[in-house]
Design goal:
150 residues, 6-stranded mixed beta sheet, 6 strands, 16% strand
Length: 150
């Protein structure tokens, strides 16, 4: 155990989050996402897991140590509902609330069409699978920077 580190963040996830640089993207996905096959195409090259928790809980853990990129408009992305791109599902609403709390302000959660989301995921740094069973519990986050005063 470590002080001030969310216990959901296992050693492999912490290693990947630390290794990521500014602008690198990570995927946090539900149980229906093709996580293993897409993870093999990422920079990290293997699937990471935060098992048995919701997507919102995994996002909370990750954003407790990972700053979002303030230089781009799509630092937080959600997979759009097929045929209903404007619909925001309950799991996406929960993650939106987690993002807003982590960043201390309202933060845009940008919708991306399903197949475009898959392509973005393939070029991500890593994929973290969760225990989220609800549909459309898939998100991409871009790492920001931590200013020198920290």
């Amino acid at each position: 155990m470590l002080k001030s580190i969310d216990p959901m963040l296992n050693a492999d996830v912490l290693y990947a989050l630390r290794a990521m640089g500014h602008g690198d993207r990570l995927v946090i996905c539900d149980t229906n996402f093709p996580a293993d096959s897409i993870a093999r195409q990422t920079v990290f090259g293997e699937l990471l897991r935060i098992d048995n928790v919701s997507a919102a809980r995994a996002v909370q853990a990750v954003l407790s140590v990972l700053p979002l990129d303030t230089f781009i408009d799509d630092a937080a992305v959600r997979m759009e509902v097929v045929g209903k791109p404007e619909e925001v599902t309950p799991v996406q609403q929960e993650v939106q609330a987690v993002i807003d709390r982590a960043e201390g302000r309202s933060w845009p959660l940008v919708g991306v069409e399903r197949y475009r989301f898959y392509e973005m995921a393939k070029s991500a740094y890593c994929v973290i699978a969760t225990g989220e069973r609800r549909f459309y519990g898939c998100f991409i986050f871009s790492k920001g920077v931590i200013p020198p005063e920290f």
